[in-house]
Batch of 4 targets.
Target 1
Amino acid sequence: MDMYILSIILASVAIFPLVLKMFSPYFWDDFFYLMNLVWVFVKFGKRRRRKPLFLVLDRYFEHTSNHPDKAFIVFEDKSFSFRDADEKSNKIANALQKYTELKEGDTVALYMGNEPAFIFTWLALEKLGCPVALLNNNIKSKSLLHCFSCCGAKVLIAAAELQGAVEDVLPSLREQGVSVFMMSKECSSHGMESLMDKAEEAEDSPISPSRREHLTSKSPAVYIYTSGTTGLPKAAVITQDRLLAALVVLASNRVTLDDIIYVNLPLYHAAGFLIGFIGSIETGSTIILRRKFSASQFWEDCRKHKVTVIQYIGEVLRYLCNTPKANNDRDHKVRVAFGNGVRTEVWREFLNRFGNIQIREFYGATEGNVAFVNYTGKIGAVGRVNYFHRKLFPYALIQYDTESEEPVRDHRGLCIEAAKGETGLLVSRITKIAPFVGYARNDQQTEKKRLRDVFQKGDLYFNSGDLLRIDHQNFIYFQDRVGDTFRWKGENVATTEVSDVLAMADCIQEANMYGVKVPGHEGRIGMAAITLKSGAEFDTIGVFSQVSSYLPAYAWPRFLRIQDSLEVTGTFKQMKVKLVEEGFSPDAVPDPLYFLDDKEKRYVPMTQEIYNSIESKRR
């Protein structure tokens, strides 16, 4: 009898994994994700309780002390160790102390592209206890001034190649009493000073911790800009607490000290800065830093530097898939890719072509209070519903009316949760664990992101502005964005900002910007309906000059349609739904259509030939 019972027990143990896989195929994925979640909270909690306040900077100091000669940044065949970065940042910090009146808590705007000086300068400012506004190095003119002003910065530090853009707004900056430094050895422009020469002459002695002794967990650490329905970028406030939480993103996905991380996404972006840079400070990994993404050089860089971890946005993987196939496509050491926005078909193609790379697709807004990560590898999903995650960060998908652009409410005035399989607006409860800090100097836009009376009177949720769907297996899928912002080439394009720039052209009376789908491309590309001033003719060269002078390339409207008048609602909101549906087909649009020709640097009449080349992905 004992042998019989033992046999049953052994048989049960043997078949248990098979039964588990049949009825709960993601059990172990969910289990290990939960363990990671517990690890993150324990680690974060310990650091949160440390006195004095534990900063990201302190984690960097730990690596500098433990392995000072390990490569921290590799850039264009130059390598900088943790000790090198520490000394260079000390020099910049000491120079700023000598030549400015910066105090703890004073904001400094950083207007630079991807280069080691960006990281050295950020470390220097963190040592001085100064929050840093990360300005998009593509913006200029009105947008640059707006971004600078809304963070209240007292100092602007800009890359040498951006001197022209700074000079354009220098009179306004001088009126505000702003100190302007160029990251160069000399600067002849009146009202601007060079910084690199001053830093080279400065001592590399450590900065006293007293410079940051009054910082709290709620003190602003970084301002990262995000476009919204207002049309101009908003400065999302990243507190010291939020920055501390960002430390664990890579580590919680098993990235270690031995990994080499390829960072080619902009450091002014949340993905490049918070995940690529800050995440690497936690793990102590080496960063291979590139000025900008290059599809043709991507895998050569990965092979040359033995990269193991890469970052992406949806377009990055598509660009890589569109490069000519080569025999050495799988000859690399990349094992994991972090990012968001990759389309299902591109995901599959990428894995088939470049090998068994773990795709860690995630969802999260810069200013948001909830995030998801696809820890199972399920193609197309951005995450998975997990009971404990949902308890810690209460979120829901609610029914949303895309016509009225408002959540659907019942007779009690409360929101209605979307059913499984139904697309809904993601909202997340605002709590102490999941706060929503909002935008710097912009109470109006901060309040717009707060949604009240969601499931009971008086409750308060963060409105993500994103439409998601949860399937019957509890996988979460991103569907679309709501409002006036659309995404192109990994950047958020604010329609109002583009419309305002178009309306500044001499021949244009009014403009209505929106995004349209283009075959083979992720996101939406810019298109605008415009009306002309009385008696004016469309200036194909002048309008191109207007948009290229005031807007980054990803925000240029690629298609224009000229109308007699723009349709508006009863509350004078511009109508976009019909325009989006009609797209840019000459057969579907009765109005004159134009296409932005990069080579001719002008708008040219949209022909059936051009349309066919776009549809067939030849343009």
Note: The chain has a mean pLDDT of 91.
Target 2
Amino acid sequence: MNVRLRILTAGVLFFTGQAVMAQKDSTKTQNIEEVVVVAYGTQKKSTLTGANVQVGAKKIEDRPISNVLQALDGAGAGIQIAAGSGQPGDGPTIRIRGAGSYLASNEPLIVVDGIPFPGNLNSINPNDIESLNVLKDAASTSLYGSSAANGVILVTTKKGKKNSSRITLNTSTGIISRFVPEYDRVGPSDYYTLAWESMRNGRFTARPQDGLAAANTYASANLIAGNLKTNVYNVPDAQLVVNGVFNPNAQLKYNDFDWGKALMGVGIRQEHNVAFSGGTDNSTFYSSLNYLKEEGYVIKSDFERIGLRLNADSQVKSWLKIGTSLNGTITSGSNAVDGVNNNAAFINPYRWTRTMGPIYSPYQHDPVTGERLYDASGNVLYDAGGMRGADAASGRNVVWETLLNDNTTNAYNLQSNVFAEFKLLPELTFRTNAAYNFRGTLNKTYANIFIGDAIGVGSAGRTAYFRRDFTWNQVLTYSKTFGDHSLTALAGHENIEYKYDYLYGYKRNQVVQGIFDLSNFVDNTSIESSFPRRSKEGWFGRLNYDYKEKYLLEGSIRWDGSSRFASDVRWQSFWSAGAGWVISKENFLSNVKAINFLKLRGSYGEVGNDALDANIAYKSLFTLGINNGNEPGVLLTRVADELISWETKAQSDVALEFELLNRRVRGTVEYYSSETKDVLFPTKLPFSAGVPDNEIETNIGNMTNKGYEISLSADVIKNKNVRWTVDATFNSYKNVVNKLSQESFISGTKKIMAGKDLYAFWLRTWAGVDPTDGQGLFLLDQEKFDANAADVRTVDGKLVTTNQNKALYEYQGSAIPDFYGNVSTTLSVKNWELSAAFNYQSGGKIYDTNYANLMTAYPQGGALHADILDRWTTPGQITNVPVLNSSLTTGPGAASSRWLIDASYVMLRNATLGYNFNKDVVKSVGINSLKLFVSGENLWMSSKREGLEPYQSFNGTTSNRYSPSRIITFGLSTTF
């Protein structure tokens, strides 16, 4: 059996079971012409007029990723990533050339083997991927019409090759640990001292007539009993802190206050893949079996996947080719609470471990000796929190609850695709594709009876989702060359139907311990179901023309109809036009040896966005089941605009592509401008309108994104034994809301209005700390000036206030970075390979809520950041941390520019070191090729603040989420 290690030569893509190559006539172009995947087909890269970024299998195969979208992090210009959480199986959030919508989705369309894919890509084995193509402009995306406004990601799976057979085995094992460190926080002795100081200052502020000594005595006497409740030192409560000095004789009775240590550790990752591929003269096949198990570094978080794929095609007649693709996976996992969705939940492990004061233990201890307590069976006893301060979640224990509770999700995925291709004439081909996607998901939850939300009763929930999507398209392609002229015309039709079954049940009052089925619970608290459906139909066409592959023209059009909209506005056309000029083919450059390839291309077009939350966007919604005893009732929950319609994005793009110095230097310089028309925004209505949430979604705005992209690649060293390649991308863009039919509206930390960008912060302006008394200051809103007000003062010549309600609101910068990109390198020295990729971002702001919560002026059981040690204590002191004062807690902690920080960072995103054994050595033991490697993800980062995740979100906000994992794996890849 002739089997060999599959190594894709850089720049050559194999697909549909055939190596597609075209010999070039001119010495100015490549000997082997790269062919890339485009909408509904393939095309020579040199003849493209659109923006198409390609990631081949070589970039994916050794990386320890469970979701193939992770491979796009840093893969090309114009691709911006907000890293997925550390929950195993999660994928990143992707933006292509910025955000183009406010209420509709900003996610790109995913297309797998030519069929739109609405499922979760963690159901597809990354080792089965042949290539990823990111389409960024209208010329490349317009054939997808109303789904293409946010760009398109084409996923192409592997196929077999004719007259060959090969078995490939990949296996890897590694460790998973926490990547982003925790914020730096104060320890027990400092914590007691700071809490005492706040209480003393607050008492003196409230009762200055008693004097400072009385305030000191009050703070010492009430530090424990009146606030923190727990004393973990071996001295009496009132002697722990005296006159602001921590007792030097105090010794800890125990020291296990690190909740993170009890919840977080090291997980194991293992992945095993075996693939068999090959073919005959008329048929090809590819089959694979994959097993993945990831244990998260947070306890009871994991992801397991087993998948089977079969791709096959056969040329049954000279005029007929048929094929099928079948992928089935079963995934299961335990879900740690993700702070993105449960930011304030008591059982959020990050909220708890981050904000719990450093004097509280997860475990029970003997109050005298401090020894940890156990039950009669030797099991550790957990502390239920009866002796904690007001901000330390009395009555809860995240470690105990996480161990006792359950939250698991099982998913069953089936993606099937069959096609038939008819050669009607030598120049005319008809292809029809039918695809059925099924995803059945069952989420099971259980809350225990001993502690937490269901204390004393217990509860269980079941949530079932059944998604069924059917797509059928028919594509007619005519391709003809007339001397120096080449023409390709494509016409097609597509139907897509989406069905979604939803069932939820929740019961309380558990009967028997250890049984979590709903039948073991008494009270039917909630049960509901729904069956939303929608459909889409489209007619499309494309025309490509080139003259000597030197002058390029392309045009596309699509008519789409969506059931989301009313019949009067249901149909709309989307189109594009592109042109290219391969300058290097001109005679005046024929003698310029330094220029191997030079192309100028440009395009303009319009694409759409109908990805709204509602399946029937033009209908008002009511909630059923709002009953009064036996009397049925309904509740109006959403009022719709009956004429709501598409958002349309008009895009223009111009780029210069080049290959220089015998193709050792390659790159693209690109400028784009896009305007989203009829952007959906919430239109605010008066309370008297009786509309839920006092708003209605309407097409009332326009928005633009304009930016530059630069991609460079260079072979620094290129000889027989050594090859060193460096790649880099640079991106910069600006966003502006051009039109808004209402004056403005506030959304969290942002104010949306015409002339500003979508992610511009609108916050109180922080003015620092008054050195005379340590109070936090804000710039004063002049409209609220009162010369006699005690909370208004002049500091350094500026009118300021200590009252946050009088503070001046201003725009405080944007979450959009000044520029961002990636630098990667690959070094091959004989049998050794080393690759590394760095992501970077410069500028942009992030509002660090997590940090703000650690900077309270009155500690009552919640943790404190180490920066609190710089608080004001003495008149004349210059600092930016206000005085600790239990009577002055609201102002300094209010939302303001105080909590904004520069979001710049540099990160070593991934690195791989591999060794390829000489083929002569491994063939002696029956192996055709063997590679050993070590690979890592999320290896190092430098940012403005330890503990901060500067790439967590696009809108510049933070949450207590499961932060990304560091993954290091060791593996081998071999073929037989």
Note: The first helix runs from residue 138 to 141.
Target 3
Amino acid sequence: MTMHHLHGRPVIIGGGIAGLMTALHLAPEPVVLISKTSLGGETSSALAQGGIAASLGGDDCPDRHLADTLAAGDGLCDEKSVRRIVEAAPQAIAHLERLGVRFDQAPDGTLLLGLEAAHSRRRIVHAGGDATGRELIRALVAVVRRTPSITILEGVEVRRLLVEDDEIAGVLAVGNGDATTLSTGRVVLATGGIGGLFDHTTNPLGSFGQGLALAARAGAELADLEFVQFHPTALDGPRRPMPLVSEAVRGEGAILVDERGRRFLADTHGGELAPRDVVARAVWRQFSAGHRVFLDARRCLGPRFAERFPAITLLCREAGIDPAMEPIPVRPAVHYHMGGVAVDAEGRSALRGLWACGEVARTGLHGANRLASNSLIEAVTSAAFVAASVAAASPGTQGRLKPAIVPPRPDASRIRPIASRALCIERDGETLREAARTLAPIAAGRDAASDPALVALMITIAALRREESRGSHFRIDFPRRDVRSRSLRLPMDETLEAAAILSDPVPDPVALLDRRASP
């Protein structure tokens, strides 16, 4: 695979909405967009059923969207970052429409606005009822493919970021079995989330946090890794990734019941539309007590279910379920990662020449618990901020790159049972410590499980350090919220230490906990 003619161009890693939008915002500057599958394929973006949050209604405004986001984030949002994104959201929707995205409209031509959990107003814009992500991918891929300044490399996987003199120097990539290096001083990570580390997930199984592994091994700073959001209502069955039963179904009035038909959230503030962490824990506890859980939409939607949610209807029917006539079996599943590469307002990481956008980035928007439908709007708006920063940055000095060892293709299958047990909805110190000791030697190795193990290890260490329960992170041995706690960061030196695990024999990684992260 020869890429010499592409040297010096900004490189965007990831073919989902964040990567596509960043490439489009950089036009007409020549850029390289690298996707390990076809553009939009096997991305969480394409699977997104929920919509995009933006204050478009006559009874709404960015300040209300801000307040709802801060409340859901449970004290760990960056208010300046939140304000910048929610204020940019309405214009971002208009921009997507100009790019060809077909949002759902009312008969009078205005955008239909839905309600989802913890939103105080109807502000969720959908496309195709419950196929928003698929419609965004369709429209954006079409525009990207006809944009001459974007060079698309599909079926190519970046295995390492190359660093010289503490700044990005290039990428090491593999495609069609051949390895090559591409010299560049500007790299944007848009690689998605970590759901592929878990047995029960709505994410593609290949989304195991490769961007976090790339960043950590390069020396970037990571933050808030312990905050993993479980969606309360994935379709309970053998299919992987697990089909999502969108929160919008509960927004239309569907209720959660056990196998006896008992509504177990009846006395919970907000009921089925309480914050996701509250609903997910309630469902998890039903499973832990030996019950099954169902989402019952028969009374609120009944025969209208197929019209309102055509994609979910098809998924249910493929599983032998008619949601108009019977409750839908559901269970919690890993859905979104609030933590990621620590970036500033422009998407810049602490490592010169490296930016991050979308789910792989920690912008400060989500805090400890993402507000529903804020993820897509973060990817769309942040892409513009990142692109402007990349365009204004120096391309760096282009030189001959040093030879690099090509790591094997990552495989998370060995790590899923470990992460699923230790990093579940309700965590405890003993199980986390056991997982850290198991993961450390795997992360220190050089086999297919090493990168997934590294990501799981870093999340585990962060979960051990947070000795409280807050947002999506719940410790049964520390069930109370600590009002003094702040975001936990892994500075460069600690990230490198966790990434390399020092030496062989491997020291106890839990010793890292003796140095508490500073606020």
Note: Residues 499-505, 515-519 have pLDDT under 50 and may be disordered.
Target 4
Amino acid sequence: MAKLIYRVVSACGALGYGFPEASLARALEGRIDAVISDAGSMDAGPYYLGTGQEYFEREAVKADFRKMVAAGERIDGPVILGSCGMAGGRRNVEWMLEVAREVFEELGVRDRQVAVIDAELDPAVVLQALHDGQLQATGKGPELDATALRESTIVGQMGIAPLITALEGGAKYVFAGRSCDVALFASDMIRHGIDAGLAYHVGHVLECGALACDPGSPSDCLVAEIYDDGTAVFVPLDPARRCTPYSIAAHSLYEESHPQLQYYPEGVLAMAQTEFFARDERTAGIRHSHFVHAGKPWPLSIKLEGARRVGARRVSLLRLAPEDLARVPADVPVYGRNGVQNQPVPKSTHELGILIETRADTREGAETLASLLTHYLIHYGYAGRKATAGNIAYPLSPNLIGFQRDDGSYGAVVPSGTRDPVFLENYARIKAAVIALVREEFPNALEHATFEFVEADAERPVALVRTVDRDPVRLAQRHAADVARALNGATAGADSLRDLDAADAYEWTLYHLLLDEHVIRDTMFPITYYRVDGKTWVRAGEARPVYREIGERGYCGNLDDRTLSLIADVPPAGEGAAAQRLLDMALVIRSKDAGINRLTLDVVFRSTAQYETALRSNAFYASNVAAVLGLPASAIVGTYFVDSCQAIKITVDRPNISASLDEHDVFGAQQQAALEAMIISGG
């Protein structure tokens, strides 16, 4: 019988999402070797790296971390956070450390070693790498510009080496800057001698918390158990959830450009030979994943991300009469027409704009309530949900605009929208559930603030006008002209929100691999140790990461992401019978950013028969997919078949870089509507 050798709990998908204390308590009923959470991402846009601000509410982050520390004090193993403060820059990390000091003091944490790993890089080092030809593109854009790089905040995405070094240096608590989310989980497993292929794949499943469950949610915990026979089993902690081979295999596709190849600083995770199995009705596992020691740029390469300020931003949300909609120029986003996607909504599809608007006596009160409502709304899981990457599309980063009203009270508004028919069918119930969750989890937020969900569609259109400029006088003039152009002679309703000063606009300036191993080994990711007694932290030493080669040599499988599992770009021979709606054939139809420059769409089918019908129809050959999505054929990176979970993955070059000034959907989570409308021939 296989012996349990390691057991780890992922607290949630990102620190601040929230998770039930009861789930973590159930995890602690058995052995736990580490408590880990990803604390951030680049998904929300460059603003958070450029400013050093956090995406989630401080109260929510502190509540999550407090529960993790309370659990950590009960085990011998470490507590690990990566991409601290959202973007993982130096200021982001310091924000998280202030929260940690409060929590340590409140919980009486004494005589513990803490490691802080810096991920920020001097722009001068990056400019030298640019000069030396040591930056490699990861796809289309952003274009490298020396002036932009000088003005940027730049971080590197660390792999396992800095984390393992910190743990071997005796750290009980690790606070890492920008991190590869999978490395947070793989590092301690590999330190304990667990096979790298298994460790990386387990890390990928765990990094979103319980999102790999059925039903899935990033606002819950998930446990992985590692056994000495080379298997890993995933254990949900909420009795209402279960892990199945299907759910684990499907999640293995999530946010990745390719279904079976994932790229990390130390090599390539290859899953073409992975087996997904059920242990019982509620738990499922994996085995035979491979981690490959590949050629250049692996090892060693580090992905760099850079962000800089573009200018101040002014926004107006103009309520229109439906008869005036035709007046508005085609390039202006209007909820009810083209608020969610650049392409106008087809006649057979409904687009709903959702503007969450709050009012309070203080700015903090208005913004906190709006933020809580919108965070719950985007990720709320409901029965029959298909768009599991997110329920709504945000056009702005940050997504919230705070302002003061004429009567002296404060307001906040979050514009968003969706075309997902399943969400729209359930919208009333989802809205009620989200309000109930906020009332239960954060009752104080509702004590001194009120809210309204403003719905917009073709009968109640709302135009979004936004202007960016570095000069405040010119910004006001340009925005007035932009509003006049958008209205084009129409009159905006009296309840429109006009001339709102939104947060400054930032842009991505860098999303490239750094290939200079000397900089990676000798400069990046310095580790500082502290001895901690509550809020008193005493510097106790420094260290450099120790790099060791890992991964298999001589791997015989295919590592070419342009050919492995590729659906041939060949039109079907003819029309078949028994046409079906893809929406009826699929369990999941989702879209999501795969980095800042690519979008990936996953279709997970209900049955083997329906999956094979879709493949036989060949509706997913690249040229046809381009036509369905309204993209040029050159934008299709690949369309792939995935037998392990009866899925089809489509990866495309993003029409714009994520969170650009003309953005409709920062997270790329609501770009699947054209797929939902597809009709599949019986083949």
Note: The first strand starts at residue 4 and ends at 10.
